[in-house]
Here is the input.
Amino acid sequence: MDGRTRRREDTRQRLFEAAVELIAEQGFSATTVDDIALRAKVAKGTVYYNFASKTALFEELLRHGIGLLTEDFRAAVKGLPPRDAVAALVRAQLEYIRRYRSFAQLLLSEMWRTNREWQQTLVLLREEAIGTIAETVRAGVDSGDLPADLDVRVAASALFGVGLVVAVDWLVFQPDRPIEDVERSLLGLVRRVG
Amino acid sequence: MDGRTRRREDTRQRLFEAAVELIAEQGFSATTVDDIALRAKVAKGTVYYNFASKTALFEELLRHGIGLLTEDFRAAVKGLPPRDAVAALVRAQLEYIRRYRSFAQLLLSEMWRTNREWQQTLVLLREEAIGTIAETVRAGVDSGDLPADLDVRVAASALFGVGLVVAVDWLVFQPDRPIEDVERSLLGLVRRVG
DNA sequence: GTTTTTGAACTGACCAGTCAGTCTTAAAAG
DNA sequence: CTTTTAAGACTGACTGGTCAGTTCAAAAAC
Here is the structure.
């Protein structure tokens, strides 16, 4: 990667970071492109040099963020027996949310919306992340570690949602508490699934 | 109540209903006052005759919606032994979400935002609803039905968040499934708390 | 010399909030 | 009962501001 590409990547990264923070706090519609440019310390023209539109920027942001999450999920369960895999997923999700708390907050706020132009993109990405969880749950069911009558799809999305809401709730309303507490109570909560 | 008051109440009710649906789908910022007026079949001026501002309308909406929820919570646990009270709360929450699904969706999307003008109002109302749950959980801890080391506040907000996210997820992504399924899996999930 | 960024000006659509005027209803006056 | 009065409820065109997106010449980085 040459210097030019690097510089551009850096600019895009800064724009992602600025956008994710602002949109997490205020929502997509309430966040202006001028705000994003200002926080990223970039000229407004640069935003439009790098992204086709505000919506396109947001969609790429979603793709990027959920892509990372899905990777983390896959890495976390790799080679693990079903017995340990669900706990590993929970831990990976929390780790991710701790690192990218704004993105998590944004996901929580935008994931269950309907009638937004980028909604289809989000549904697809959600499918991707939850699909990864579902594979693990299915392996658990097949191996007999999880009850045979468990609805895999439903369990996967419940796991995903519960982790998201509990972690974000804690980050927003009790930010001083250590993440370990969240992990403990969350693992407690889902123990009957894991 | 005379005809005037009745008419006005009716208008306000229609505005609430229109606003809650639109804001659930699109979010507060993306919903215009013209949209709300159009769906409620009143003129835009009527919105401002009945509410001081778009934000004031939203705040009253939140107060009204969460007020109902809190009432339901109180009614659900009245006279129940701690052993059964948590399950009753979960059931009441689900019942509420089924009846006011748009409001629930709206809550899920707006509850963990920061830096919005109505955020303080929402935090207060949240406190009210979760406080009701917390009382029940505390009674359970005191009576020995729940573990003594349980953090009451945290357990209460986790319960609230989990119910909300699981139910709304189901309503949005699997609307055809009967609510009884949600109840079963949710009660399964929180059995170690209840 | 090519790519990327800058910054400032501009456009046009959109939107919260206003207001002068109209319709409705209760109730007072005849 | 019928008419008048007046407050209450509603209307929709209008205003002033905001914001996504465009444009472009010049500069900076490579």
Q: What stands out?
A: Residues 4, 7-8, 11, 42-46, 49-50 of chain A lie near DNA strand C (CB under 10 Å from a C1'). The mean pLDDT of chain A is 93. The longest helix of chain A spans residues 3-26.
